[in-house]
Each structure stands twice: as structure tokens, then as C-alpha cells.
């Protein structure tokens, strides 16, 4: 099972970088798919979130890249902006020791000017969402004639989101002679159809999609009606006090309503769904990953594939329609040897979904009574950090060291009070231990960072 990267014919820079990253052996999807990707044929791969799919195709792309040619040689399509960002970050990490590799994200929801400018300067690899990529191919800002690799990442989700026509439209314009790689967490009929339309003799690699359900304590609550779901969420939070969790809902409207309800009950919650603009999504996701937000309310589409680890629990406010999505949701908890918890609510009309889940995870499910949980317990888990914003970013040439330096020297914080620093183009978010956040804001507002004044406040 222990398959080493060294046995593959990879560039020396890639191998020494993998070594430095601590990627000691291949994950199962990498061991299955990467050799085939390196051979140059089409591959269709199935593996769950967090299984290392990016490197499974990314190392293949980087290995055959012509570094001197700044025309785009690989196009990777992802369902959402966050997923595209995540893939780009992972690819840059893998490409660290190869000089001057340009990897560009091209996604919707942001202006065209900046993207068109960047494209004008060339990019070896483009990671994007189908709508915006199609548009920029049409307007010839994306130069496709040298594209040798075409990747559909999280393909099932792209189809769920209605991107079939756009994907086909893009595929038709790309050079005929290329390698097409398709990755998907689930394998419904439509995925096979998509594969047949865009791939040629694709070799299939399937990695057991069963999660370690045994590591997850799963509770199911049969409720008399949907109306008691909000109060039931409070009971679950009060009884079990998970310190970091995602609550999955069926629709945007439900996520909005539940989030308002939780806030009215003094719980720090925020939601993500497709209607938020880019800056709102970034703010929410930054706070959730830097531990200044405990409760994230999300739709499947918004949460799928996000690299969020170490959740104490997930709550299924609504059961998903597809039992495989249940497995994916609960698979986000119970990582790294810790036992995760999954709480699912359903009504009588959804009993058939419970049966489907039962056969999917081949386990007896125990149905609990929500009435056994008392109302009066309060949810007391609070996030340890708070996030501040600084009104400057990459364009002001701010670096993590400048921020940390100012927080220690000007604001007199201990380095251990400072958490994750994320520097965006024109804005920076910094996680600060709650006890020190006021001091950080006051002192930084008065003081200077890199000899300049910036606005600082609670994000
Ligand atoms: P997926 O796309 O399947 O959801 P990712 O490609 O985003 O998964 O990888 C998930 C995480 O695992 C990333 O943080 C990545 O750096 C890490 N990872 C990938 N491959 C390896 C490996 N061979 N050894 C250790 N960590 C790995
Ligand atoms: Mg991925």
C-alpha cells in the first residue's frame, strides 16, 4: 500500500519538493491515477474530498509543462470560485521548485479587467469556473491553441450546477489532441455520459468511497414537522456543544433563515451559499478557517470540496437527496483520529432516505428522540479567535512578517496571540486571540505598519 512518488518518472524538482512538503507516499487515488496520467491517456477518477486529487492530476500537468512557453497548456474547470482557488493554491505549492510557473484563476463574480490583463501576460495553467472561462475563450483572452491537458474537477457538482452545456462548449473549441482528466466524488449516470462525450478510452480509477463511519457517532432525530427544526438545532448545540461545525441545509433561503435565527439566539453563525458575492464569501470562509467562527451554515453546493478539516460535528438540518452526499457531509468530521459527530434531523415523509443511508453505510442506524434533549442548556462553545481587517494587502506590498511585526512591536501582542494572517489584494484578515483583539485594533489604528497608516477594525 505504501507507494512512493520516487518510483514515478517525475522531474527532480517535483520529487524534492514533495519530499520537502512531507508527502512521503502517494494517497490511494494518486497511486491509482497518477501513473496513468503520466502515460498521457484519459483518466476518470472517483475519490472523496480530501483524498489528494489535485496532485493526482496536477503532478502530471506540471511534469509535462513546457516552462518556456507562456501560452496556456492546461485548463482546469472547477464548480466554484473557492474550489478553483483551492486547486490553484495546491498547484502553486506543488510547483514551488519549478521556476516561474504562472497559474491563474479565472472565475466569475469579479471584474474582467484584472483577469484580462493577467491573461495578456500569459499563464501556463488556468484554473477556472466554466461560465467565465467560456466567455474569455470567446473573447480570445484565453489562448487555447497550446492546451494539452483539460481537467474537469468535481465534475458531478459541475453537472448539478447546470454547467453541462458550458463544459461541452469549451471542450469543442479546445485542440482535439489533448489529455482529458475527469474527477468526481460520485458516479451517477450523467457523469458516465459526460465522460463518453469528452473522453477517449478513459481508464477508470475508483477509490473506495466508503468513509470510516465507524469513527463517527451518528445520531438521527425523527421530528414531528419541519417547524421544530430551529428549536431542535438549539437543543443539539446545547447538549453536545461542538466547538466547530457545519450545518447543512437544502436551500439558500433555509440557510439564511437559520443563520438569522441562530444570531437572534446569540450564537455566532454565518452562512455561505451561491448568492453571496466574492468578498462576503472570502470573509466568512476566512473566519471559519481561522477559528473565529464556530457555526457555518451551508448548502451542499457551497460546502462541497472545501478543504475544511477537523470539524467537531456536522448537523444535517435537511437530509440530502442523494445518500452519497450524506456520506460526504459526515466525512468532514472525525478526522485525524478524533471521533466526529453527525446529527441528522428528518420527518416521517423522509423515512425512505433513512433506508437509503442505512444501505449505503451498511450499518444499523439508531434513531434518537429529540425530546430527551432539554431546552434549557445553552450553547457555550465560543470561538477562541476574532478576526480583524487591515485596509491594505498585496498591492501595498504587505507581507505576513510586516503584520506580525507591527502586532508585536506596535501593539505589544505576544506572537502566540496572533493566528492566521491572510493577505488579499487590497485587504488583510488577521486572527487574534479574543482577549487581545481590542488592544490590537486600538494600537494598530494609532501606529504604523511598514511606515504607513491603515484603517483597522473588527471584520
Ligand atoms: P481533494 O481534491 O481530493 O479534495 P486535495 O487535492 O485538495 O484533495 O488534497 C487534500 C489535502 O491533502 C491537501 O492539503 C494536500 O496538500 C494534502 N495531500 C495531497 N496529497 C498528499 C500526500 N501524498 N501526502 C500528504 N498530504 C497530501
Ligand atoms: Mg479537490
Give an overview of the whole structure:
There is one protein chain. The protein has 459 residues and is an alpha/beta fold. It has three domains: 5-206, P-loop containing nucleotide triphosphate hydrolases (Rossmann fold, 3-Layer(aba) Sandwich); 216-372, Rossmann fold, CATH 3.40.50.300; 385-458, RRM (RNA recognition motif) domain (Alpha-Beta Plaits). The protein has 17 helices and 18 strands. It has helices at residues 12-21, 28-39, 53-63, 81-94, 112-120, 130-138, 155-160, 164-173, 189-198, 229-240, 252-264, 278-289, 300-303, 323-330, 351-361, 400-409, 437-446, and strands spanning 43-46, 74-77, 103-106, 125-128, 149-152, 179-184, 203-206, 216-223, 245-249, 269-272, 295-299, 313-316, 340-347, 367-368, 385-390, 418-423, 428-433, 456-458. The strands form three sheets. The chain has a seven-stranded parallel sheet, sandwiched between helices. It has a seven-stranded parallel sheet with strand order 10-11-9-12-13-8-14, sandwiched between helices. α2 (28-39) packs parallel to α3, α3 packs across α4 (81-94) and α14 (323-330) crosses α15. The protein is globular, with a radius of gyration of 23 Å. The protein starts with 11 loop residues before the first helix and ends with a strand. The model has no long low-confidence stretch (mean pLDDT 91).
CATH class of the largest domain: Alpha Beta
Task: Please work out how many helical segments DSSP would assign.
Answer: 17
Biggest sheet layout: 7 strands, parallel
| Order of strands across the main sheet | 3-4-2-5-6-1-7
Look at the helices and sheets and give the structural class: alpha/beta
Amino acid at each position: 500500500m505504501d507507494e512512493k512518488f520516487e518510483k514515478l518518472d517525475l522531474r527532480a524538482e517535483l520529487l524534492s519538493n514533495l519530499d520537502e512538503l512531507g508527502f512521503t507516499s502517494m494517497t490511494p487515488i494518486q497511486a491509482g491515477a497518477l501513473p496513468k496520467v503520466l502515460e498521457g491517456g484519459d483518466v476518470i477518477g472517483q475519490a472523496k474530498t480530501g483524498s489528494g486529487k489535485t496532485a493526482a492530476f496536477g503532478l502530471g500537468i506540471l511534469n509535462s509543462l513546457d516552462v518556456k512557453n507562456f501560452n496556456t497548456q492546461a485548463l482546469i474547470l472547477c464548480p466554484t470560485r473557492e474550489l478553483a482557488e483551492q486547486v490553484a493554491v495546491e498547484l502553486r505549492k506543488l510547483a514551488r521548485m519549478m521556476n516561474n510557473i504562472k497559474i491563474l484563476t479565472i472565475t466569475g463574480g469579479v471584474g474582467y479587467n484584472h483577469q484580462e490583463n493577467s491573461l495578456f501576460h500569459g499563464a501556463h495553467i488556468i484554473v477556472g469556473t466554466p461560465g467565465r472561462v467560456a466567455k474569455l475563450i470567446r473573447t480570445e483572452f484565453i489562448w487555447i491553441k497550446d492546451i494539452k491537458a483539460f481537467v474537469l474537477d468535481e465534475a458531478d457538482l459541475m453537472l448539478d450546477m447546470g454547467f453541462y452545456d458550458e463544459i461541452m462548449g469549451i471542450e469543442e473549441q479546445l485542440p482535439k489532441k489533448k489529455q482529458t482528466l475527469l474527477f468526481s466524488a460520485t458516479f451517477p449516470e450523467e457523469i458516465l455520459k459526460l465522460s463518453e462525450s469528452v473522453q477517449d478510452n478513459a481508464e477508470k480509477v475508483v477509490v473506495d468511497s466508503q468513509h470510516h463511519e465507524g469513527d463517527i457517532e451518528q445520531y438521527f432525530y425523527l421530528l414531528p414537522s419541519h417547524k421544530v427544526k430551529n428549536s431542535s438545532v438549539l437543543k443539539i448545540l446545547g447538549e453536545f456543544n461542538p466547538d466547530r461545525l457545519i450545518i447543512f441545509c437544502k436551500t439558500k433561503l433555509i440557510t439564511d433563515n437559520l443563520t438569522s435565527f441562530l444570531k437572534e439566539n446569540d450564537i455566532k453563525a454565518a452562512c455561505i451559499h451561491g448568492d453571496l458575492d466574492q468578498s462576503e464569501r472570502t470573509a466568512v470562509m476566512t473566519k471559519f478557517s481561522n477559528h473565529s467562527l464556530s457555526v457555518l451554515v451551508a448548502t451542499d453546493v457551497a460546502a462541497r470540496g472545501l478543504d475544511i478539516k477537523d470539524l467537531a460535528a456536522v448537523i444535517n438540518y435537511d437530509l440530502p437527496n442523494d445518500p452519497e452526499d450524506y456520506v460526504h457531509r459526515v466525512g468532514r468530521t472525525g478526522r485525524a483520529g478524533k471521533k466526529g459527530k453527525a446529527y441528522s434531523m428528518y420527518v416521517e415523509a423522509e423515512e425512505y432516505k433513512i433506508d437509503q443511508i442505512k444501505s449505503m453505510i451498511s450499518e444499523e442506524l439508531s434513531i434518537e428522540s429529540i425530546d430527551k434533549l432539554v431546552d434549557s442548556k445553552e450553547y457555550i462553545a465560543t470561538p477562541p479567535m476574532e478576526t480583524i481587517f487591515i485596509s491594505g494587502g498585496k498591492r501595498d506590498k504587505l507581507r505576513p512578517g510586516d503584520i506580525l511585526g507591527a502586532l508585536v512591536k506596535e501593539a505589544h501582542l505576544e506572537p502566540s496571540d496572533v493566528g492566521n494572517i491572510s493577505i488579499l489584494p487590497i485587504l488583510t484578515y488577521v486572527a487574534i486571540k479574543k482577549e487581545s483583539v481590542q488592544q490590537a485594533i486600538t494600537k494598530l489604528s494609532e501606529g504604523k505598519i511598514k511606515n504607513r497608516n491603515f484603517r483597522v477594525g473588527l471584520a
